[in-house]
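Hey L., structure's done. Input below.
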Amino acid sequence: MASIDTGTDDLLGMIDDGVAVLTLNRPERRNAFSGAMINALGRVLADLETDSDVGAIVLTGAAGAFCAGGDVKAMASADPLFGAEQTYDDKIALQRLNQRATSVRLWQMGKPTIAALPGPAAGAGLSLALACDLRYAADSAILTTAFARVGFSGDYGGTWFLTRLIGSAKAKELYFFSERLTASEAEQLGVVNAVFPADTLMDEVLSRARRLAQGPRVALRYMKENLNRAVFGELGDCSDLEVTHHVHTGTTEDHRNAAKAFVEKREPTFKGR
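Output:
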């Protein structure tokens, strides 16, 4: 097990058995964003994307919560997210860059990303969870878009991710009314993949993350790209890309070893090449 130097106590990180676990860590504010946290998350994700020791990434929160999103108390006191006061244009530019470094990277990077929700996920915190490939929740978790309650339209990609997960009409309802979803309701809608007792959540998530980290990493990278493109791509283009990736992965050592293991009726061992 190795710790990750994130540069701030607001974001904790460790790598174990090929899995990087990032923990949003402001328990006194239900892990609401701080400038230090969200900027560190962007930097760390960039490093992990190219770290050959990491095959999967888990994002979670400390002390029984996932993330409350933006820190409304700080907003009310005019404490800006990115530090010193900036111009209107600078705020837009900085947040665009940060969203691409966090939510967009979680969605696009060539490694599986998993959100483990031990408790409430709201606003931009929910958006970060939606940006991950998979979401697993504790049975005590509550999910809400929350933005309408504080007069915001929404950020960190949540409108894009939620629309593609559950459809336009239901996504609009959840955004317009800021309804609270129980973990069970979120699972029924397809917002989370599965729900577990709170005391077993991380064991269940890490078990799945290790399976992915020890899996055929080249194949998983291209599988994720295929599936992402299928969300919005034209069928012919997606089909052509699927063929290219399929033939390419057929040349890997992982494929050859797995094919041999299949014939020999044993479990394959993947090396990520």
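DSSP finds eleven helices and ten strands in the chain. Residues 217-263 form one domain.

-- N.
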